[in-house]
Design a protein that fits this description.
Layout lengths: L2 E4 L4 E2 L4 E2 H4 L2 H14 L4 E5 L2 H4 L9 H12 L3 E5 L19 H15 L5 E2 L5 H8 L12 H25 L4 E7 L2 E4 L2 H13 L2 H6 L10 H6 L5 H9 L6 E5 L5 E5 L2 E3 L8 H12 L3 E5 L6 H20 L4 E5 L6 E2 L12 E2 L5 E3 L4 E3 L2 H10 L10 E2 L5 H4 L12 E2 L26
Parallel strand pairs: 1-4, 1-13, 4-5, 5-6, 6-7, 7-9, 8-10, 9-12, 12-13, 18-19
Antiparallel strand pairs: 2-3, 10-11, 14-15, 16-17
Helix pairs in contact: 2-4, 5-7, 6-7, 12-13
């Protein structure tokens, strides 16, 4: 099984700030790329920051990306290019993904990327379209913050059209391009009869973007009435998607503990207290689409010891899929270095460290520090270790409460006591992210 990583880059248009700057990756990229190479990793998800390159519409500044990708190539690293990570669009796109000509201008940018870097073969055209669209509409914390089902379904149509057009644009330049479509792997359950309909709706909605961009959505689809009545799509629009279906070579699934919910009359449990787990969800997505599966993101927010135990669990889940013959395209711990500011859902660029990376950021100057997690992930990447070789450290609060539903899965683990030395006090606590952030849309 191949092991990958990546770098968080999300742009906050309202503040003209991005995580590349907040983590100092835009300065330290040479050293950061060597950390990746020295860990035995050869492929990585990497941003092509549209918001930086096309600050003025129609004018491209490639200087930073030219230097980074040239270094990456010299190090023997193969990027999965990520031209649009969450809200990383230029500020002149004033209505964000609701801007009417967003699909066309984004496709033009992707064509320019493919022409500029003809050696780059793999692309994620739009990172996590479902949660991104929800956060921009129903949840209302990312721009343009247009709440309500109408905005959500209108944005779904515009984003899906952009994915299709951008895929076509890249293929016109690079016919042999490979596309890793990345979205969250979700699973939802109901604890009472009152919640069954809502959980069923969410279990249909998790497939919405895949169905639409693959041209597999017709008027019999359970979400068609929402797309028609709230989103304004028409039968000719569905015909357009069938005629412009995007190509997906690998179905990338991002899995975090909060991807699974249990609903009841008074609210929900997040994470679920009876999670299905990544392997079970991956089988569901594979059964629906018949595509190779790849774990394109996972992490746990906590001490290094917490991350090691979550890594052990997730590697075992993926090893089970490989053992049963499901086509599996790789395991990605994301990101390589800690991110920042997810405690405010990237609303305030304070530089607050988010303790999730393979390398942790230390001090106000964001020094990169390795750990036992770094060493173990390198051993996996080099083929020296399997999940059975990874230690199981007892989860610490608040992660232990967060993962209570997983405990029955780990009965056979030989638990060790962790040492509380991995995280500086000023970097903790990270506020518990909005548990229901992905599930507000009706």
């Amino acid at each position: 099984m191949e092991y990958l990583t990546g770098f968080e880059s999300t742009y906050m248009p309202g503040h003209d700030a991005d995580v590349l700057t907040l983590t100092r990756h835009d300065e330290c990229w040479r050293d950061d790329l060597r950390l990746v190479r020295d860990s035995g990793i050869r492929r990585l998800r990497y941003p092509i920051p549209w918001h930086r390159i096309e600050r003025t519409r129609g004018q491209y500044d490639w200087a930073w990306t030219d230097a980074v990708l040239a270094e990456m190539r010299s190090l023997g690293l193969a990027p999965i290019a990520d031209p649009l990570h969450h809200t990383s669009f230029p500020r002149w796109l004033t209505e964000g993904f609701l801007t009417p000509d967003f699909p066309e201008v984004y496709a033009a940018f992707c064509a320019a990327v493919a022409a500029r870097y003809p050696w780059v073969r793999e692309y994620t055209v739009f990172n996590e379209p479902l949660p991104t669209t929800l956060l921009c509409t129903e949840i209302g914390v990312w721009p343009p913050a247009r709440r309500g089902p109408e905005a959500f379904y209108r944005m779904v149509g515009n984003v899906a059209r952009a994915i299709c057009l951008a895929t076509e644009a890249i293929r016109a330049v690079r016919p042999d391009a490979r596309f890793i479509h990345v979205d969250t792997a979700e699973g939802h359950g109901a604890l009472d009869g009152e919640s069954e309909g809502f959980a069923h709706h969410l279990n249909q909605r998790r497939f919405l973007f895949h169905d639409l961009i693959l041209g597999q959505l017709d008027t019999a689809h359970p979400l068609w009435p929402h797309l028609r009545d709230a989103g304004g799509l028409t039968a000719p629009d569905l015909a357009w998607f069938r005629g412009h279906a995007a190509r997906i070579d690998v179905l990338g699934l991002d899995y975090y503990a909060h991807c699974e919910h249990q609903f009841h009359g008074l609210g929900s449990f997040c994470p679920s207290r009876a999670p299905q787990g990544f392997a079970a969800l991956a089988r569901q997505y594979h059964a629906r689409y018949g595509l190779p599966i790849m774990l394109t993101e996972t992490n746990i927010r906590g001490y290094v010891s917490d991350r090691i135990s979550w890594l052990k669990h997730m590697v075992a889940e993926c090893e089970a899929l490989v053992a049963e013959g499901l086509p599996f395209g790789g395991f990605t711990w994301f990101p390589c270095i800690d991110s920042t500011d997810w405690d405010t859902l990237l609303n305030v660029p304070r530089g607050q460290i988010d303790p999730v990376g393979l390398y942790w950021l230390h001090g106000r100057d964001m020094r990169r520090r390795g750990s036992e997690l770094t060493r173990l992930y390198g051993g996996l990447a080099r083929g020296e270790l399997t999940s059975a070789d990874l230690p199981a450290y007892r989860f610490l609060a608040p992660v232990s409460e967060h993962l209570a539903g997983w405990q029955p899965r780990w009965q056979g683990w030989a638990w060790r006591e962790p040492e509380l030395v991995e995280l500086p006090p000023w970097a903790w606590p990270i506020a518990r992210m909005g548990a229901d952030m992905r599930f507000a849309a009706g």
